[in-house]
Every structure is written in structure tokens, then in C-alpha cells.
């Protein structure tokens, strides 16, 4: 059974939901603490959402210097699968594990909604259980969600298939080229603004064709990485 | 005690949603002459003792590595705040 670390920073909100998602996918969640430079031998790491350090300075900017992040940056360079969700994505960009950055939503409002995404790359460690081009619905909730990068970086990401998710049905925050999530060159590090861990159990997810709150489109993020660890 | 001021601004090519909102509010209060607003950040870094060239160098490094994110922001000023104030006073004196 794959052991998947879930990091808690001061101000993290979604660590318990992320740990629960790991468990529902069949993995063993392992709590990791920001101040311990110790990954406890985990096979993969999730940086969950929230407002670490109150988003002071810039979202994710202070968490980047947490002792656990040094270990994660080293291990990611050696192929450890890492998923950053929302604030976790912001931490990954500040740590230079992923390109670009997030600024305030173009309309300046906090957004909380069920969001349709297309899976643009189904070859990463975190998306291999999806079909290429598949549409999925998972929650989106943030204030600093507008993905920005310079044109050259955006062209590179597109050319190398590193745009992993794109917003569908309207751009909710002004993100360049409707980008909702990206990966590193190797595909082991993935970050996205929407929240797969909130769509993993029927009765507690987004509305779906199966009924209200029955959407579980986020679960395959976690089964993907468990499969990736086995193969 | 010395004090270094660091100013950080959003890059010109990055849309500044906060500045845009402020620009939208100004004409409603009668300030119609301001056609655009950009909102940045100002940091004041204190040191024991005077602001030496070494202190300014360290402040510039901190500004690049921590206080700003080069993907979205530019460091537009790293300066000894007291020296700046003194220079302003002396230039006013000359005028």
C-alpha cells in the first residue's frame, strides 16, 4: 500500500480532507509537519490547500522556507510524486518546482464553485487514471487563483504538454490561457488551483449526473499516484 | 539604528487587479485626473548601526530572493531611508 505524506503548515485547511482522499483511494496517509525536515519515508507528497502563514508577503512565499520543503525539493528532483492543491500549488511555484505564479483573481472576489476542467495531460503521476481530454468537475475556492507566466514560459508549457488542466465553461479568475494546473518537465510534480480532495466520496462532492453531491471526479488523482507507485 | 526601504511593484506587463479597483474608485470621489493606479509594497528593514554598503547589498539580495517574486514583481528601490530624507532636505535647501 502506498504511503502518501500530507503536509501541514500553520494555516493549512485541507490536510484532513487530503488525508481522507488518500485513504478512500486505498493508500495510507502520513501526516508531515512543516517544521520537521523529515519525509518519514513516504512514496509521494500532497501539499494541501489553505492560507499558510495567512498568505502574508505572497501566497506560499513563507511556507517555501519551511524545513520540510527542503526535503521535498530534493526528493522531487529525484522523482518523488508531489501534488500541490490551491495553496499547495502556490507553495510549489514559490519553491520553483513549478513555473509561473498566482495573483489575485481578475475580478477581485473570492470564488467558490463547482468547476469543470479538461484533463489535458493524462500521463503525469497524478492523472494517469484519467482519459486524455476527459471533463471532470471538482470544487474551486480561492482568492489568488489567477495563473500568470511570461509568454515564452506559456509557449514552452503548451509545447511540452505541461498544461495538465484547463478551465472549461468560462475562465473563473483570468488565468492565462485558461490554465488550471501544470506539471514539471518530468511529470512527477503537478499543481492545480481546484480541489480534487473535496470530490472523492458520493454524498459529499459536487453535483453529478448520478445525483446531488455524488461527484467523485477527484478520487482518481489519488488512485493515479498509487498506480504510478506500483508500476 | 539604520533603516533600509525596499519598494516592490507588480511588473508592468502583469495586470494589477488591486490597482485597477482603486483606479475605478477614485473618479467616484471626484479624483478624475488619475488615469491609472498600480499598487505595490514597501518594506522597511531595520539594522543596528548605520546603513553601510554591505547592508544595502544584503537588503538587495533579500529583496530579490524573498521580498519579491521575479515572475510577477520588480524590485524598484533599495535605499537608505535616512540618507534619502537628508538628500531631499538639502536639495530643497539649494532651491
Automatic annotation (TrEMBL), chain A:
Catalytic residues, chain numbering: 86, 195, 197
EC number(s) reported in the record: 6.3.5.3, 3.5.1.2
Checking InterPro entries in the record gives: Class_I_gatase-like, PRibForGlyAmidine_synth_PurQ
Which cell locations does it reside in?
A: Cytoplasm
Give GO terms: molecular function aspect only: phosphoribosylformylglycinamidine synthase activity
- So what does this thing catalyse? N(2)-formyl-N(1)-(5-phospho-beta-D-ribosyl)glycinamide + L-glutamine + ATP + H2O = 2-formamido-N(1)-(5-O-phospho-beta-D-ribosyl)acetamidine + L-glutamate + ADP + phosphate + H(+); L-glutamine + H2O = L-glutamate + NH4(+)
Broad class of where this protein is predominantly found: cytoplasm
Known pathway: Purine metabolism; IMP biosynthesis via de novo pathway; 5-amino-1-(5-phospho-D-ribosyl)imidazole from N(2)-formyl-N(1)-(5-phospho-D-ribosyl)glycinamide: step 1/2
Keyword ATP-binding listed? The answer is: yes
Q: What are the boundaries of the signal sequence? A: none
Q: Which UniProt keywords apply?
A: ATP-binding, Cytoplasm, Glutamine amidotransferase, Hydrolase, Ligase, Nucleotide-binding, Purine biosynthesis
Subunit structure, per the record? Part of the FGAM synthase complex composed of 1 PurL, 1 PurQ and 2 PurS subunits.
Q: Which NCBIfam families match?
A: FGAM_synth_I (TIGR01737), PRK03619.1 (NF002957)
HAMAP family linked:
PurQ
Q: What does this protein do?
A: Part of the phosphoribosylformylglycinamidine synthase complex involved in the purines biosynthetic pathway. Catalyzes the ATP-dependent conversion of formylglycinamide ribonucleotide (FGAR) and glutamine to yield formylglycinamidine ribonucleotide (FGAM) and glutamate. The FGAM synthase complex is composed of three subunits. PurQ produces an ammonia molecule by converting glutamine to glutamate. PurL transfers the ammonia molecule to FGAR to form FGAM in an ATP-dependent manner.
For this entry, the protein name equals Phosphoribosylformylglycinamidine synthase subunit PurQ
From TrEMBL, chain B:
- Enumerate the Gene3D superfamilies for this protein: Phosphoribosylformylglycinamidine synthase subunit PurS (3.30.1280.10)
Q: What is this protein called?
A: Phosphoribosylformylglycinamidine synthase subunit PurS
Question: InterPro entries from the xrefs?
Answer: PurS, PurS-like_sf
- Its main subcellular localisation, reduced to a broad class, is cytoplasm
EC numbers = 6.3.5.3
A single GO molecular-function term is: phosphoribosylformylglycinamidine synthase activity
Question: What is the similarity comment for this entry?
Answer: Belongs to the PurS family.
Function according to Swiss-Prot or TrEMBL: Part of the phosphoribosylformylglycinamidine synthase complex involved in the purines biosynthetic pathway. Catalyzes the ATP-dependent conversion of formylglycinamide ribonucleotide (FGAR) and glutamine to yield formylglycinamidine ribonucleotide (FGAM) and glutamate. The FGAM synthase complex is composed of three subunits. PurQ produces an ammonia molecule by converting glutamine to glutamate. PurL transfers the ammonia molecule to FGAR to form FGAM in an ATP-dependent manner.
Assembly description: Part of the FGAM synthase complex composed of 1 PurL, 1 PurQ and 2 PurS subunits.
Reactions catalysed, semicolon-separated, are:
N(2)-formyl-N(1)-(5-phospho-beta-D-ribosyl)glycinamide + L-glutamine + ATP + H2O = 2-formamido-N(1)-(5-O-phospho-beta-D-ribosyl)acetamidine + L-glutamate + ADP + phosphate + H(+)
Kindly state which keywords UniProt assigns to this record, in alphabetical order.
ATP-binding, Cytoplasm, Ligase, Nucleotide-binding, Purine biosynthesis
Coiled coil (UniProt feature): none
Organism (species): Cellulomonas iranensis
Cellular location of this protein?
Cytoplasm
Q: In which pathway does it act?
A: Purine metabolism; IMP biosynthesis via de novo pathway; 5-amino-1-(5-phospho-D-ribosyl)imidazole from N(2)-formyl-N(1)-(5-phospho-D-ribosyl)glycinamide: step 1/2
Amino acid at each position: 500500500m502506498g504511503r502518501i505524506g500530507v503536509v501541514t503548515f500553520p494555516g493549512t485547511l485541507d490536510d484532513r480532507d487530503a488525508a481522507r482522499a488518500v485513504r478512500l483511494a486505498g493508500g495510507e496517509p502520513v501526516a508531515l509537519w512543516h517544521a520537521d525536515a523529515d519525509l518519514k519515508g513516504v512514496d509521494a507528497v500532497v501539499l494541501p490547500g489553505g492560507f499558510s502563514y495567512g498568505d502574508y508577503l505572497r501566497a506560499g512565499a513563507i511556507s517555501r522556507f519551511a524545513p520540510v520543503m527542503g526535503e521535498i525539493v530534493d526528493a522531487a528532483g529525484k522523482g518523488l510524486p508531489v501534488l500541490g492543491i490551491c495553496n499547495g500549488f502556490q507553495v510549489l511555484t514559490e519553491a520553483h518546482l513549478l513555473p509561473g505564479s498566482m495573483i489575485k483573481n481578475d475580478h477581485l472576489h473570492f470564488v467558490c464553485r463547482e468547476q469543470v476542467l479538461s484533463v489535458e495531460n493524462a500521463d503525469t503521476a497524478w492523472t494517469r487514471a484519467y482519459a486524455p481530454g476527459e471533463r471532470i468537475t471538482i470544487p474551486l475556492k480561492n482568492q489568488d487563483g489567477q495563473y500568470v507566466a511570461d509568454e515564452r514560459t506559456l509557449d514552452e508549457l503548451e509545447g511540452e504538454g505541461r498544461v495538465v488542466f484547463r478551465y472549461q465553461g468560462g475562465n473563473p479568475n483570468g488565468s492565462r490561457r485558461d490554465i488550471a494546473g501544470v506539471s514539471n518537465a518530468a511529470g512527477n510534480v503537478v499543481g492545480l488551483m481546484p480541489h480534487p480532495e473535496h470530490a472523492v466520496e458520493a454524498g459529499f462532492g459536487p453535483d453529478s449526473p448520478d445525483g446531488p453531491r455524488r461527484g467523485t471526479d477527484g478520487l482518481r488523482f489519488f488512485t493515479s499516484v498509487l498506480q504510478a507507485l506500483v508500476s | 539604528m539604520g533603516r533600509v526601504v525596499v519598494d516592490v511593484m507588480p511588473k508592468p506587463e502583469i495586470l494589477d487587479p488591486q490597482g485597477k479597483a482603486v483606479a475605478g474608485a477614485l473618479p467616484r470621489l471626484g479624483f478624475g485626473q488619475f488615469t491609472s493606479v498600480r499598487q505595490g509594497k514597501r518594506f522597511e528593514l531595520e539594522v543596528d548601526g548605520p546603513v553601510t554598503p554591505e547592508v544595502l547589498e544584503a537588503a538587495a539580495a533579500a529583496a530579490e530572493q524573498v521580498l519579491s517574486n521575479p515572475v510577477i514583481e520588480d524590485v524598484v528601490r533599495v535605499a537608505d531611508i535616512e540618507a534619502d530624507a537628508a538628500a531631499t532636505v538639502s536639495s530643497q535647501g539649494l532651491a
